[in-house]
Structures are given as C-alpha cells and as structure tokens.
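pinned: reference chain
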Amino acid sequence: MNSLIPHPVSPFSLTGLTIWLGALATLAILSFLFRENRLYRFAEHTLLGLGIGFGVATTITDILIPKWWAPLSEGWQQRHWGAIGVGLAEIILGLALYGLYHKKTVWLSRAVLGLVMGAGAGMAFKGEINDKLPQIIASFKSPYVPASQTTMFNNTPSNIVFIIVMLSVLSYFFFSADQQRPTLRVSSRIGRIFLMLTFGIFFSNAIMTRMSVFIERIWFLLTEWLRIGVP
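pinned: its structure tokens
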C-alpha cells in the first residue's frame, strides 16, 4: 500500500528540475484536449522556438563548419585554389538568396532558387529510381515455386495472391481503356478494396504510433513525476 503513495521529485535538483519541466510541458500540451488555451499556446510557441534554435545550431555545427568553413580554411592554408573557389562560390550563392528582400536584386535569388530546385529534382529523381527500382524488380514473382525453394515468404499460394492483388490495384489506375468493361470493372473494384484495406492499415498504424506516445507520456507523469508505484 505504501508503494502507491505519491512521492513527487524535488524540483531543486537537476534531475528533478528536468522531470518537472517535462511534466509541466506535457500537461500544457495535453490541456488542448479540453480546449485551446493560453497555456497550450505558450507551450506550443516554446516548442517551436526550441526547434528553430536547435535547427540553427545544428546547421552551424553539422553543415556550415564541417562542410564549408573547414574545407575553405584548409584550402586557404594549403593554397588549394579549387577548394577556395568552391567555398567562395557557396557563400556568394548563399548571400544571393537574400536578394529576395529587394526589388532590384530579386532576380539573383530566383536564379539561385532555380539552381537549387533543379539540383534537388535531379537528386530526388535519382533517389526515387534507387528506391523504387528494387521494388519493381521484386514484383516480378513466379506463380509457381518449387518445393526445394519454398520459404515462408516465397511460396506458390503467396505469390499467386501477390500477383492478383498487384494486377487488380494496377487495373484500378488503368484509364487508357473503358473502365466499364466487365473484366476491367471487376478487377478495378477488387483493387479498390485492397487499396482501402491498405489505407486502413496505414491509418491504424498512425493511430497506434500516437497512442504509444500518449501512453509513454502518461507513464512518465505517473512514475517519474508523481512516483506512483515507485518505492
């Protein structure tokens, strides 16, 4: 019975202060469940401010210093003109982005943004090919698997079901032919059912993830802050 008596942690120690701040922030965020209030908005703005500050600090320590300043300074010491030129070009292009705030120099920012978007599109296209190509290759499964090669995930029934589901879903997005044809109409309806099942699974996974976070916060409040059930 004594183990159920709350023993709050003293906020005057470093560990206690951390726990109390975490508990108060958690309660402030959870207060939104009743209605939006000033306490919730204060916690929200504090979280956004901390996130922006952390992002700026991470940008300086993980990007600017190791990937720009260190190569530039090393190239300057070794008189490596290629590294110096790249470093100076990077700072010029970066400063050109601030031309957006003046009418006469806005074209500089547009040129840099166009360059960044073009490079980003190329990298994204390459990433999509590298990520999706193995999935496309893995989609070509044989409907028959010999007994010697049968595994839990590679067997004849599973491959047949996989092929039926894949073709049904693809037929749902096949708009070059009339969807009212009997074969295409039936397969597209089956594909729509499988799509709804898939979206439902994704939605339930998202709900379970948020419920896990909620349960972890409640457990934190009960055990680490109020010390309920903790000797």
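why pinned: The two ends are 11 Å apart (CA to CA). DSSP finds six helices and no strands in the chain.
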